[in-house]
Amino acid sequence: MATARCTANVAVQALFAVPLHMKAKIDAINIDNQGVAAATVQLEDDFTQDVSNLVGAPVARSAFPFQATVPAGISFSADELSVKEIECLGNVGAIANVVQAGTVIIVEYHFE
User: Percent helix, strand and coil across the chain, each rounded to 5?
Assistant: First the structure.
């Protein structure tokens, strides 16, 4: 199992890239908010489909498979049911509604 880490930011913070023709399964998401404000954090999956018979000119797509709001001073761990079905296909990152170095986002994942 691999682990990726970033801090809260209003711009997407890269976590990992999924290799071509694979998918990433999320095993755990932990958010430690020691910042001064509540933080709403989203996991973002940016991917582009392959060219195929049905898709001649694929376009980039974004999906947001997870979101949590964590109050200041709180550590949050998503339960297994919350992350069990999350699959990512492209470049995975985290985005928040605040910029806080004290808010740490940790994602554990594996490829299939």
Answer: 5, 60, 35
Greater confidence (49 vs 111) lies with 111
pTM of this prediction? 0.91
User: DSSP letters along 55-104, please?
Assistant: -SS--EEEEEEEEEEE-TTEEEE--HHHHTT-EE-SEEEEEESS-EEEEE
Report the chain's terminal Cα–Cα distance, integer Å. Answer: 11
- Of 72, 78, 79, 63, which is closest to residue 97 (Cα–Cα)? 72
> Which residue, chain included where needed, has tokens 């069990």?
84
Residue 3, amino acid: T
SS3 assignment, position 29: strand
Report CA torsion sign: 24, 18, 13, 97: negative
- The residue assigned the tokens 């999320």 is 26
Cβ burial, residue 79 (10 Å; 0-12/13-18/19+):
exposed
Q: 77 exposed, middle or buried (CB, 10 Å; 0-12, 13-18, 19+)?
A: middle
